[in-house]
Design a protein that fits this description.
single chain, alpha/beta, Leucine-rich repeat, LRR (right-handed beta-alpha superhelix), Phosphorylase Kinase, domain 1, eight-stranded parallel β-sheet, 19 strands
Length: about 450
């Protein structure tokens, strides 16, 4: 056990943490410290990520105020059934264990957000469809080939991650869910041929690793690390960004699918240009060379919080003028429409994945949840209408923070477009090229 964990455990046992609402305890625990149960009257958030636990105590349900539980990177082989005894538990995270079994009793009655990424699950129980509050379900990197039909009743489900499993087809009921907005299914057999087709159809040049000189790290995430770099391309070296991809499955899906999507997305004013794919890395690491984005660009918003669950969090006081609103929405709608024409869905269209320069230009990034589909197929149309709802979320957020429109009728027109994106019948929603055209008309 590391020193920090030892100190926290000592304070817990001494009673110094009495009344605590949150407890973080990581560092090699092999057994659940029963002193945690002494916090039953106050504890709301328990983080046991990064230990060596394989079970929870039978009386875990004593934590009757517990709302959020993280037990990722442990040694559980089944989702503990005692979770179902926690009356207020709504967020459960057991990423990167060895879970092969998920029983109905393990599903808390108020379940809202379930993270079981990177396990060994081949089946989830039909009772998952009896959790009406479920909004986010993250199952990437398992052994699933289907989902129970009972989940057609999950009318509040907004985000679903089933990438890197064994799906040959998508469940038909998915396309009728009224609130589903963010869906990732890349890395499954159903998407593989379409991904290969897209990479062949939209090739990018190779860039010799020896021609690149890496500098400082600009950012990193679950799928890779981005460096500022110098590219000795011809007689005049230029500054670029280099993204080196990791091999591990992320909560969204496969780094390989992300790289393929970046390449197949093509050139667009609201997409970060891809200069080429790295060849000849000494360790065989995959990577891309991209345009270096200027320092004026910042994320439009922050990612969802525990409380907001599926909606982004904006900085207090964030406001957008009408021209900026139309530039952000119009540019990203046009970029999404291009992806759709090329047989892709973004899968994670959120404000926190949009870079904005504070004026009138935005860039859509982060293709980690992108998935490939046969262009112009019936399934492609259905998937694009799911993504139209994600676009409606952005429009709603921008309208809430808009400082004004040139006329009430123009604001009403944009509000009407947003409402169409939220239609409970996905097939009545507008396609992204229609949305982009409507926004372009408003901007003129």
């Amino acid at each position: 056990m590391n020193e920090a964990a030892s100190q926290t455990l000592a304070r817990l046992r001494s009673g110094a943490l009495a009344g605590a609402t949150r407890l973080d305890l990581a560092g090699g625990l092999t057994e659940f410290p029963r002193e945690i149960l002494d916090l039953a009257e106050s504890l709301e958030v328990l983080n046991l990520t990064g230990n060596a636990l394989s079970q929870l105590p039978a009386d875990f349900g004593r934590l009757r105020k517990l709302r959020i539980l993280f037990c990722s990177n442990n040694r559980f082989t089944r989702l503990p059934e005692v979770l179902g005894d926690c009356p207020q538990l709504e967020m459960v995270g057991f990423k990167s264990n060895a879970i092969a079994q998920v029983g109905a009793a393990a599903l808390p009655p108020r379940l809202r957000w379930l993270i079981l990424t990177d396990n060994q699950i081949a089946e989830v129980p039909a009772e998952l469809g009896q959790r009406p509050r479920l909004q986010k379900l993250m199952l990437a990197g398992n052994r699933l080939s289907g989902l129970p039909d009972s989940m057609a009743a999950c009318e509040r489900l907004e985000l679903l991650r089933i990438a890197c499993n064994r799906f040959d087809t998508l469940p038909g009921w998915l396309f009728g869910l009224p609130r589903l907005s963010w869906l990732a299914f890349g890395g499954n057999p159903l998407a593989q041929a379409n991904e290969e087709r897209a990479v062949l159809a939209y090739p990018v040049p190779d860039v010799d690793w020896a021609a690149l000189q890496l500098h400082e790290v600009l950012g990193q995430g679950a799928s890779g690390v981005i460096h500022r770099a110098t590219w000795k391309n011809g007689s005049t070296p230029g500054e670029v960004a280099v993204k080196l991809f990791k091999g591990a499955i992320t909560s969204d899906g496969s780094p390989q699918s992300e790289m393929d999507a970046c390449m197949a997305a093509g050139a667009h004013p609201s997409l970060i240009p891809v200069r080429g794919r790295i060849a000849g890395h000494p360790e065989g690491t995959h990577g891309l060379v991209l345009d270096l984005v200027g320092p004026a660009y910042r994320n439009l918003a922050g990612p969802p919080s525990f409380e907001s669950c599926s909606r982004d969090v904006y900085a207090p006081g964030t406001r957008f003028g009408w021209p900026s609103l139309l530039a952000i929405a119009g540019g990203t709608a046009s970029a999404l429409a291009q992806l759709h024409r090329r047989g892709m869905v973004h899968g994670d269209f959120y404000a926190h994945n949009i870079l904005w320069n504070g004026a009138q230009h935005a860039l859509l990034g982060d293709f980690g949840a992108a998935s490939f589909v046969e262009p112009e197929s019936q399934q492609a149309t259905a998937l694009q209408r799911i993504e139209a709802r994600a676009f409606g979320c952005l429009l709603e957020e921008l309208l809430e923070r808009c400082e004004g429109a040139p006329s009430p009728s123009e604001r009403d027109a944009l509000a009407h477009l947003q409402a169409r994106c939220f239609d409970a019948d996905p097939m009545r929603r507008p396609a992204l090229d229609e949305i982009a055209a409507a926004l372009g008309a408003l901007a003129r």
